[in-house]
Design a protein that fits this description.
9 helices
Length: 214
C-alpha cells in the first residue's frame, strides 16, 4: 500500500470512528435524561408511583435507543461498502450525525409530553431527518461516477437499502396521521404504537428483496 492509499484509508477510518463516537454518546445521553421525580417521603407506594410517572419517559428512552441502534447498524453496513470519500460525503455524514445528536433532546420532550402532538411531531421530524440523510448518503455513495464505494453496483441492492431506511419514518408518519383524528386516549395510544409497524415493514421488504437482502 503506497502512502497516498494509506492516508486515504486512515482518513476514512477517522470518519467511521468519529461517527461511532457520536452514536455512542447520543445513546448514552438518552438515559441521563431518565430521572425520577422528587419524592418527599420514600415508601414502597411513593416509589412505585414515581416509577409509574416516568413510564412514558422510559418508553421514549427504549424507543429512541432502538431507533439510534437501527441507524447505527445501517451506518455500519453502509460504510462497509465505502472505499473512498470526498467533502460532500463528509458533510452529508455530519448532517446525518447532527440529527442523531438531537435525538436525546427530542426524546426527552417526547417522554415528558408524550400525550401532546407537538412533542410527537418534533420527535417524528427528528427521526425523518435522520432517515433523509441516511437515504442521501446511500444515494451519493452508490453513484458510479463518484467511485466512493465497492459492492453497490447492483441497483436492486441500493433500492433495498434505500427502502429500508424509509420504513422507520413511514411507520411514525402513519402514527402522526392517526393522531390528527382526535385527542382521545385511544387515538393517542394507537398513534404512539405505530413504531410496531417497523418490524412488519422490515420483514416485508426483506421478503420482497430476498435475492439481495443482507
Amino acid at each position: 500500500m503506497d502512502i497516498k492509499e494509506h492516508k486515504k484509508t486512515f482518513q476514512l477510518e477517522r470518519i467511521i470512528l468519529f461517527s461511532d463516537a457520536v452514536f455512542a454518546i447520543s445513546i448514552t445521553l438518552l438515559v441521563i435524561e431518565l430521572k425520577l421525580p422528587d419524592i418527599e417521603q420514600v415508601t414502597n407506594s411513593t416509589l412505585a408511583n414515581a416509577l409509574l410517572c416516568i413510564w412514558p419517559h422510559f418508553f421514549s428512552f427504549v424507543l429512541s435507543f432502538m431507533i439510534i441502534g437501527i441507524y447505527w447498524m445501517a451506518h455500519h453496513r453502509m460504510f462497509n461498502f465505502v472505499t473512498s470519500y470526498d467533502n460532500k460525503l463528509i458533510w452529508l455524514n455530519l448532517l446525518f450525525l447532527f440529527f442523531i445528536v438531537l435525538m436525546p433532546f427530542s426524546s426527552n420532550i417526547y417522554g415528558v409530553y408524550a400525550g401532546l402532538n407537538t412533542a410527537f411531531i418534533l420527535y417524528v421530524f427528528n427521526i425523518s431527518m435522520i432517515a433523509l440523510f441516511n437515504f442521501l448518503l446511500y444515494h451519493y455513495i452508490s453513484r458510479p461516477s463518484k467511485k466512493l464505494s465497492h459492492g453497490l453496483e447492483n441497483p436492486r441492492l441500493v433500492r433495498y437499502f434505500k427502502i429500508r431506511t424509509c420504513i422507520v419514518p413511514a411507520s411514525f408518519g402513519i402514527g402522526l396521521i392517526i393522531s390528527l383524528f382526535g385527542s382521545s386516549f385511544w387515538v393517542i395510544t394507537l398513534s404512539r404504537m405505530s413504531p410496531m409497524l417497523i418490524i412488519i415493514g422490515m420483514r416485508i421488504v426483506k421478503k420482497i428483496y430476498a435475492d439481495v437482502a443482507v
